[in-house]
Amino acid sequence: MLRNINIEGYRGFDRLAIEGLKRVNLFVGRNNSGKSSVLEAAQIIASEGAIGGILSSLKRRGEIIPGNQAEGRTDEIDLPHLFHGHKIKLGSAFKLEGFNDRPVSITCEISTTSSNEARFPLLPGLDENEEDSAVGLNIIVDGAIKTRLPLSAFGTLPVDWTRRRPGNGTGLLGGDTVSNRPVRVVPAEGLAPQSMSLLWDGVALTPEEPKLIEALQIIEPGIERIAFLARETARPSAGIVVKLKDSDTRVPLGSLGDGVKRLLFLSLSAIHAACGYLIIDELDTGLHYSVIDGMWRMLITTAQRLDIQIFATTHSQDCVTALGRLHEDYPELAREVAVHRLEKGLAHSVCYEPGEISTAALQEIEIR
Amino acid sequence: MPPRVSEKSPYRLLVEGKDDQHTVIHLLRRHGLDYDAPTPNLPYIHAAGGCTPLLESLTVAAKSYERLGILVDADQDPQNRWDEIRRRLEMVGVRLPEFATNGGTCVTGVNRPDSRIGIWLMPDNLQAGTLETFLSRLVPPGDSCWLFAATCTEEAGKMGAKFPKKYFSKAQLHTWLAWQAEPGMPFGTALTAACFASDTPKALDFVNWFKRLFLANSF
């Protein structure tokens, strides 16, 4: 589990030190305080340099420049936005460090290569002539250059590189981890139906299936079983049906509301993050305040059972004050959680224990 | 009247109860700081509901606000009260001097640039007492009834009145307020009505401490 994170030169942060990380970490702060950037940084550190893992985050931010198949142009990452100041030149770098039982340090640096320089490990399938292009992004993990990715003249990075990686996990842009610890991301808008279906395949008829049903019962106690049917459709929960107690008619998951879907996304992702990391944007989106207590208990017990470290963000005061109640009612669970508040311009986060959350609620001190 | 300063303000003054809240607001108004027409940087004044809840919230408050003021009664053992505040603030990295500063204490806070924390122990950072002790000293000197209020309170005590001895000031003060032009005004109203003087040295000390903590460019 990561204990501390240091960020330098990444996105809006000149420097940011986050200390006191626990098993479950909730990041709060105003809009534009950098919560999503911290999640991205945690993701890159947890996956030891796989910046491809944040591709979907980049898409959401509009930082992927669409290509044009007819003209043979691939999608490209508008790279400068990852760097503090939104500009890159030779020598620009950002550095992400995490500390657990051993430190992990990832530096992404813009530099040149020449054919006289030592050969870096290449991605198989890479045309050797392309390696000689003038400027590239070096991804340096623990002091060793792991990958070199050529940049276009505009400072963009072709996303196409993901398809050139070998299948065995050294594709750093592709999002695989080098360390074999899974890194699962749950975006605010949830998961695509194919992804959910694949995740379900890993759970069906395993000992985790009843745990997943328990999670859904937080909102709908009548759920007995769930099944994923084969359907061709893009809607996130289409094809997922549920058996309710005292009824023989199976019911589409969507008819039970957004909250159940969200708990399903969270549970499925958590099960697949065992012994690794779970990254959750907008933790309580779609959840009514009355089920947030149950959500916290489920999330923390799952994280304990499956040895997961969680990084999550929220905008909601309910989500934070629920931790105060958790501290009163289930202190052994609450002590696994730390709340980290980010403020623009502060070079370190402010860390709160759940005991302090309940005091804050009593005294009307806003922490979010 | 509740202050119009937002409770989301990064500047906060913690007080024990409503009496303290109103005393501060009305005393400040006599010195040109008006919560009904607030200047920037006026802190939100939060009544914590007692000394114990206030002290328990100190670590969270110290971490959460850019400028934090703490106003508590010294009660019977001022050094004890000071030591407890000091112990709690140490837990989040705030260093207080060994003794309260005459004139109010201001120190650097944590986490944020130009963060400040200030403490005022009622009545005057030195002696035992409460808000009422502070207010008692604002009674205009030579007031014809103040001494008589003391005599009456003593007599009442001898006749079996139930107030504990430590609350003598409080009893005397409320007795005196019962005899003003508008009998029984609450403290804040009495301050505004100029029953109390507002420019005794200690009152000025308090206002200056407040200004140094929240409004001045440096403390």
Structure description:
The complex is a heterodimer of chains A (368) and B (219). Chain A is of the alpha+beta class and 368 residues long. Chain A has 9 helices and 18 strands. In chain A, helix 4 runs antiparallel to helix 5, helix 5 packs parallel to helix 6 and helix 7 packs across helix 9. Chain B is 40% helix and 12% strand. The mean pLDDT of chain B is 93. Chains A and B meet through helix 9 of A and helix 3 of B.
How many individual helices of chain A?
9
Strand order of the largest sheet of chain B: 2-1-3-5-4
Give the ordered list of helices and strands of chain B.
Answer: EHEHHEHEEHHHHH
Q: Tell me, what is the CATH class of the largest domain in chain B?
A: Alpha Beta
Biggest sheet of chain B, open or closed, and with what strands and sense? 5 strands, mixed
Distance between the termini of chain B: 29 Å
> Major sheet of chain A: order of its strands?
2-1-6-7-8-9
Q: Helix share of residues of chain A?
A: 25-40%
Helix percent of chain B reads 25-40%
CATH fold-level name of the largest domain in chain B: Rossmann fold
Oligomer: heterodimer
Tell me what portion of residues of chain B adopts beta-strand conformation.
5-15%
